[in-house]
Amino acid sequence: MIWRTSEESALLSVSRRAMNDEFEAVFPRLDFPQGTKAALDALDEVERLEQILSVFRFDSRIQYINLTAHETPVRLDDELFDLIAFCVEIAEATGGAVDITSGLLWKVWGFSRRQGRIPSSSELEAALENVDYRLLELNPETKTIRFGKKGVELNFGCVGKGFALDIAARKLREQGVDRFLFQGGLSSVLAGGSGWKIGVAHPMRPGTRLAELTLNEEAVATSGSQKQFFRHNGRRYSHLIDPRTGQPAEKVLSVTVLAPTGTLAELLSTAFFVLGLEPTEEYCTKHPEIAAVMTIPTPKRAGFEIRSFGFNNEKLRIIDSE
């Protein structure tokens, strides 16, 4: 995503690499002399969360849960319990289209090693037996989690960056920085204050903007398959996999979601990518706080069409429709 502010001001950027991506906080330098320290503290929060949520760290909290929660309930702090409970809530609301137990599917398709492969039917069947958010037994009284069977795993790839932005933004606000843009890689952005404009990347033309959004105390997340995919026998396979079927999602090229929080925006961008056009439109109609812009593959000359839901003319400007 490409960002700019609607007001002319001197902006300061503070960034750090975390969660295998670049996190960046941008704010008006003259308005917030404490901004640099606040941004560094916010980035510390991103690193803290990576140590908790990463499945690539052998000593992370999530790895411990994945190894032990099938045997005995594991006590969680409020932050992690609430995150898992919210992920389960959104999984339920989207019919299982986004599921934090679906990392097993990502593995069997080879995406965890960035070496895409076609899994055997037995491999896929075995993975699907352990992919279901309903296998997560959460006890709100004891704040514990237990897995319904051995083999279940948590993976926060569909929500981690958005959640990190929410926590980091809270740290900025606690230190009096209330006008900022916080970006997690090229896919997730959270805005403090109003008038921030960001560009949405074109799904088929690298370096080109598809649209421009105006953010006012909101978050945006984009899901697309242009960077992680492989081809086999002339067919393209995306890293975004439908947890219900175990098959890569094929209905959408990209989807960008506007939501009140980074956590919700990222979860829904994954869910909408899996669900496709009509269910996304239905969800946005029922939830007016949510908006989405999608690119759908078509046989037309351009190869895609753009559909948007929940936006008004002041929030969304389409730049490239062909």
Rg, rounded, reads 20 Å
CATH superfamily of the domain at 53-147: ApbE-like superfamily
- Based on the structure given, which CATH architecture of the domain at 53-147 is correct? Orthogonal Bundle
- Can you identify the CATH class of the domain at 53-147? Mainly Alpha
What's the tally of helices? 8
Shape: globular
End-to-end C-alpha gap: 19 Å
Structural class, from helix and strand content? alpha+beta
Q: Quick summary of this structure?
A:
By secondary structure, the protein is of the alpha+beta class.
Structure description:
- By secondary structure, the protein is an alpha+beta fold.
- The protein has a domain of 95 residues: T-fold, CATH 1.10.3980.
- It contains eight helices and 17 strands.
- The longest helix is centred in the N-terminal third of the chain and has 19 residues.
- The chain starts with a strand and ends with a strand.
- β15 and β16 form a beta hairpin.
- α1 runs antiparallel to α6 and α6 packs antiparallel against α7.
Record keyword descriptors for this entry:
322 residues, alpha+beta, T-fold, 8-stranded antiparallel sheet, 4-stranded antiparallel sheet, globular, disordered N terminus
Please give the structural blueprint.
Layout: E1 2-5, E2 11-18, E3 21-28, H1 35-53, H2 61-68, E4 74-75, H3 78-93, H4 103-108, H5 121-128, E5 136-139, E6 144-147, H6 160-174, E7 180-184, E8 188-192, E9 196-201, E10 209-215, E11 219-224, E12 229-232, E13 235-238, E14 254-259, H7 262-275, H8 277-286, E15 291-297, E16 304-309, E17 316-318
Antiparallel strand pairs: 1-9, 2-3, 3-7, 4-6, 5-6, 7-8, 8-11, 9-10, 10-17, 11-14, 12-13, 14-15, 15-16
Helix pairs in contact: 1-6, 6-7
